Amino acid sequence: MLTMTNSGKSMKTLEKENLELQKKREFKAQYPHVIFEEPFVPERPSRFCKIEEFNLHSEKRGVDRKIFDEDLEQLRLEREKAMEECEKKQKEIEAKEIAELRKKTVHKANKIGEYKKQEYQDIS
Predict the structure, then answer these.
(1) 1 pLDDT exceeds 50?
(2) What 3-state class would DSSP assign to 98?
(3) Read out DSSP for 26-73?
(4) Among 115, 95, 91, 111, which Cα is nearest to 103's?
């Protein structure tokens, strides 16, 4: 006689599953072979480790940064020198223009023309 439960499984299948779960839960002791074996002892190497030279990244970066700063300073000096030369040329050009402008605008006196003498009468 098979009866169906809500999940659709028969009672026999549920009983089988319960028996399997009980068997899995049972504790089964195994033979203690670890007790009779010698413990693990790590072996030391027969020769010593060789220490190699190493370079820190910060040291390499410091050298690279120093080179970068020197290049940057050199570039800055070149720019300043170029700016000074440009300013010097500009001042020379302005001085020439001012001198030329003064030559053109400086008033030169003209000769006074000769006129006949006028005589004034006394009104007294």
Answers:
(1) no
(2) helix
(3) S------HHHHSPPP-PPPPSSPPPPPP---HHHHHHHHHHHHHHHHH
(4) 95
